[in-house]
Amino acid sequence: MKFYSAAERIAFIATLIAVLVLALLPISRLDEFGIDIGFHYDKANHASAFAILAFLGSLGWPGRKTRLIIFLALVGAAIEILQGTSLIERDLDVFDWIADCVGMACGLLAAICANWISRRMN
C-alpha cells in the first residue's frame, strides 16, 4: 500500500461519515445546529457527495472499483430508505439515489483521468 492510498482511504472514511451524518440527521436538527452546507438543489448535493466518495474510494482501493460501486450504491439506497422513516423525518426519493449513481460515475471518471494524468507525468 502506498502512502497516498492510505491518505485517500482515510479521506474516504471521513467523507463517508460526514455524508451519513448530514443525510441521516433530521432537517430540524441540521437547522438547530446551524448546519447549512451544500447546494440549494438536493440532487446536486447527492451527486457531488457520491462523486467525491467514488473518487476517493477508487484512488484508495484501485483494484476494488466494482466492490466500491456496489457498496456506495447500497449506502445510497440505505440512506433513502432510512430517510423515508418517521425517525429521520425526511423523504424517500428514488431520484436522489439516481443522483448518487450519476455522482459515482462522475467520480470514477475523474479518478480514471487523475490516474491517467499521473501516469503520463511519470
From TrEMBL:
Source species, domain of life: Bacteria
Entry keyword annotation includes Transmembrane: yes
Bilayer-crossing regions: 46-61, 68-88, 94-117
Keywords for this protein: Membrane, Transmembrane, Transmembrane helix
The protein's name in its UniProt record: VanZ like family protein
